[in-house]
Amino acid sequence: MPSYGQILKSSAIIGGSSLLNIGFRILRTKAIALLLGASGVGLLGIFDSISDLTRTVAGLGINNSGVRQIAEAAGSGETANLNRTVTTLRRVALYSGAAGALLLLIFCNPISLLIFGNSQYAGAVALLALAAFFGDISQGQAALVQGMRRIGDLARMNVLGALYGTVISIPIIFYFREQGLVPALVSVAATSMLTSWWYARKIRVGRVTLTSRETFAQAAALLKLGSIIMVTSLMTMGTYFLIRVILLHTMGIEAAGFYQAAWVLGGLYIGFIVQAMGADFYPRLTAVANEHSKCGRLVNEQIEVGLLLAVPGVVATLTFAPIVLQLFYSANFGPAVEILRWLCLGMVLRVASWPMGYVLLAKGVGKMFFWIELCNDVTYLMLIWIGVKWFGLTGTGIAFFGSYVAYIIFINIVIRRLINFKFSAANIQLSGFSITVISVNFVSWYLLPGAIFFVFGTIVTIYAGIYSIKRMSCLITIEDFPRNVQNLFVLLRLGPSKNRV
Fold it and tell me: What does the pLDDT read at residue 497?
């Protein structure tokens, strides 16, 4: 049976928590923009990239492979197997987090010299060791919650972690200014670790005594796919980090700040859709990975719902990009508008292509996943080099869009051969609609005067929203909605049918 109801339910839960996270993230970013300006935002992006790169290297991909192993163990019904997997996951998370922290402590001075050209920030880099350690522990605990498909706990865990991190980090930045950026990142990571521990401990796991040899044997299965995912994630994070370094050295720290601002806003709305995919879609896809027809159906359903959720938000962002940037940051972030608009085009393609990418992870074909991601990262870097040279800072956004045009074509070819995947008729029709409304809105920015464009863009945004609501209302029954939402549908004459389509 179609799983639209399950997709929308998980999207609503994870999406709601993501929206709250967005609000907390906006507060933190707004505080930095007002207190420290574009240079502070750029510096935060660099520190955040250092922490993410370290966590990716040390984490060994357990946040993805751990979900897969836990989901498989839970699905097998063998309690002893699940207990061993959970125990191994927790040990690997602890040891890998400690190793990552140690690496930052040892190489803090060379890292500062490499990135900033001096050792001024060596102490800040060393302090990031705590953020990396807390982050690895948090990822391991989150993998357990997600693998068990406790979507509600996963959402609450993310929201509370972001709330506590915001409450603590903003006063730190207010009192210590630039010197408070790294302590703020550490506080966010620490609160995430504590909240993830609180919800992970609710999952009852029997005590298991494992020798070092048994732990190594269990970890080998966990790390077989995880190590490939780690290398792939490192490669991708390294690509984005290298872009920031290139901008830092060629255009200055403000250019890096503009790119960071556009990147954050471009991924805010799309982020909750992608997170919903990973939260529930990935474990469900793993369960049917060897049944190609079911696998293809799940992918098509996820693409359809993802596009219906993404297109109205992307059109709105394209329309109100200048206002959004000024609201979230300040009036000085005007140069980021063009970057954000091009990033939005690429983000739509990301939503459409990510369900296909999850097929590779669900089937455990790590090497294939690695090579496809490598091609995508190399393509992005090449297009960045060309785009910045020809179009300046806007070229970073154009490059992102171009890289995802190439990616969605290539991943479609691969998945077609792997599971005989074909786009459904509904998705072909939806893709035509999405391309039309987004293209019309995007081009109108350059053809219409400012005030007229905002009116036109608002109309297109409302039209896209109504279209998406009507399409989604046909995929599930009215009883699947809360009572107040049902009443709203009736009032607006958007009520879904009584039967599933």
Answer: 47
What amino acid occupies position 102? L
Answer whether 430's CB lies under 8 Å from 301's CB.
Answer: no
DSSP annotation string for 143-189 = HHHHHTT-HHHHHHHHHHHHHHHHHHHHHHHHHHGGGGHHHHHHHHH
Residue 1: per-residue pLDDT: 46
Count of C-beta atoms within a 10 Å radius of residue 220: 11
pTM of the predicted model as reported, rounded to 2 decimal places: 0.69
Greatest mean pLDDT among 179-188, 213-222, 287-296: 179-188
List the structure tokens of 201: 């401990």
pLDDT for residue 494 is more than 60: no
Q: 63: how many CB neighbours lie within 10 A of its CB?
A: 25
Alpha carbon 181 to its chain centroid, in Å, reads 22
Distance in angstroms (rounded) separating the CA atoms of residues 106 and 113: 13
Rounded to whole angstroms, how far apart are CA atoms 475 and 486?
14
Residue 113 has a CB neighbour count (10 Å cut-off) of 15
Token pair for 76: 């097998």
What's the pLDDT band for 411 if we cut at 50, 70, 90?
Answer: very high
In this structure, how many other beta carbons lie within 10 angstroms of the beta carbon of residue 74?
A: 20
**How would you label 401-436 residue by residue, b for 16+ Cβ within 10 Å and e otherwise?**
bbbbeebbeebbebbeebbebebeebbeebbebbee
Tabulate helix, strand, coil % of the chain (nearest 5): 90, 0, 10
Residue corresponding to tokens 């990262």: 377
- Token duo for residue 438: 């987004």
Question: Does residue 5 surpass a pLDDT of 70?
Answer: no
DSSP for 225-236 reads HHHHHHHHHHHH
Stated as kind and residue range, the H or E segment containing 7 is helix 4-59
- Kindly report the average pLDDT of the chain as a whole number: 78
Q: Would you state the pLDDT for residue 492?
A: 55
| Residue spans of alpha helices (H) in 201-335 | 212-250, 253-276, 282-287, 292-328
Per-residue pLDDT of 114-159, as tens digits, reads: 887 778 888 888 888 888 888 888 877 877 777 777 777 777 887 8
- In angstroms, the CA 320 to CA 281 distance is 31
DSSP strands (E only) in 303-438: none
- Residue with the two structure tokens 């990142």: 185
What's the rounded mean pLDDT across residues 316-338? 79
